[in-house]
Design a protein that fits this description.
The chain folds into 3 domains: about 5-145, Deoxyuridine triphosphatase (dUTPase) (Deoxyuridine 5'-Triphosphate Nucleotidohydrolase, Chain A), CATH 2.70.40.10; about 195-255; about 270-325. The longest helix is centred in the C-terminal third of the chain and has 44 residues, at about 205-250. The protein is elongated, with a radius of gyration of 38 Å. The mean pLDDT is about 80. It is α+β, with helices and mostly antiparallel strands. Strands 1, 2, 3, 4, 5, 7, 8, 9, 10, 11 and 13 form an 11-stranded antiparallel sheet that branches. A two-stranded antiparallel ribbon has the order 6-12. A hairpin with a 2-residue loop joins strand 3 (about 25) and strand 4. It has helices at about 5-10, 75-80, 95-100, 195-200, 205-250, 255-290, 295-325; strands at about 5, 20, 25, 30-40, 45-50, 55-60, 65-75, 90-95, 105, 110, 115-125, 130-135, 140-145.
Length: about 325
């Protein structure tokens, strides 16, 4: 009966079966595979290489990216029989739970007995936020089965991906040449907006230009939706901060609140009294000035100079008051 390898048995595989493996990635009954350096953004076809200038990848909402594992797997009988004579190894690879918690959809796959090469997957970001992963970050979990007598295959893996290293694009054969568009079934509904837009683009000049612009507008709406999600997140963060401030205010001792409530009205009253007194003094001086012939004559001759002097003195006094505060 197939036996799931435990941590002690998995440690025996590091360096030979699990090439470039790390003992720190060994779990009780599995090995944690890490993000490798090569890959491709499926939506744009842009390939990337990590480890030098680029330290990680950013996956936009709704986008998919093809990844490889940092480790290379060698399940060939020549290698495995050095550790387990008369046995083969079979693996099941599944994403870590961290990925699913962040809205990352990733497939569960298998490693056939006899396989040798790099492991490749494609993951998709179904969340409304950008997800980022750094080079050598834990992403997949490998569970290894030791196949016993009667379970080992007669023919081990000899597929198109055997002995391939690095990022390996799909080797699936395309459709036969010459198939008509009507022979394909798709998800578009007759009369639906996607179908109408597609037909508009295919209708030729000048309608194809309009169709392409509408498609560009649709992409802009998607960008706005993504930006709205970021704004909504910022508002939620602001609400949390305001809640924390209110909680801190509620934690102020009652005796301090009482003192503050008594001091603030008193300070306001003193300020009003001083301001009112100052205004009445200015009013008295103004009335005295307009009823004095000598003062009127003086202001008539030297009014601009006196006004400029008062402004300068006011600025100096105001600056001194604010500086003290």
């Amino acid at each position: 009966m197939a036996e799931i390898l435990n941590d002690k048995e998995i440690e025996k595989l590091i360096g030979n079966v699990i090439i470039s493996g790390d003992f720190g990635c060994v779990h009780p009954n599995s090995y944690i595979l890490r993000l490798g350096e090569k890959g491709e953004f499926i939506n744009s076809g842009k390939e990337f290489s990590l480890g030098k200038n680029k330290k990680g990848i950013s996956i936009q909402p709704g986008h998919s990216v093809a990844l490889i594992a940092y480790e290379t797997i060698d399940f060939t009988r020549e290698t495995v029989h050095k550790i387990y004579p008369d046995h083969d190894l079979h693996g099941i690879v599944s994403p870590t739970t961290d990925l699913s918690r962040e809205g990352i959809v990733a497939p569960t796959t298998q490693i056939d007995a006899g396989y040798n090469g790099t492991l490749n997957w494609t993951i998709t970001n179904t969340s409304n936020e950008v997800r980022r992963f750094i080079y050598k970050e834990n992403i997949f979990r490998l569970m290894i089965f030791k196949l016993g007598r009667g379970e080992t295959p007669e023919q081990v893996y000899k597929g198109e991906y055997q002995n391939q290293t690095g990022y390996v694009p799909s080797k699936r054969k395309g459709p036969p040449v010459g198939m008509k568009e009507s022979e394909w079934e798709d998800s578009m509904i007759e009369g639906g907006p996607e179908k109408l837009l597609e037909n508009l683009i295919k209708s030729g000049y000048p309608w194809n230009i309009l169709g392409k612009k509408l498609a560009a507008i649709d992409d802009c709406f998607k960008d706005v939706t993504n930006e709205y999600s970021h704004i909504n997140e910022s508002i939620n963060n602001l609400k949390k901060e305001m809640t924390e401030i209110k909680q801190k205010q509620n934690n102020i001792p009652n005796d301090i609140k009482i003192v503050m409530s008594e001091m603030i009205p008193s300070m306001q009253n003193r300020w009003l009294i001083k301001t009112g007194s100052f205004i009445f003094v200015l009013l008295g001086l103004f009335i005295s000035a307009i009823n004095s012939a000598g003062i009127r004559s003086f202001l008539s001759n030297y009014g601009p100079f006196v006004g400029l002097t008062i402004i300068i003195i006011s600025i100096i006094i105001g600056f001194g008051v604010f500086k003290k505060k």
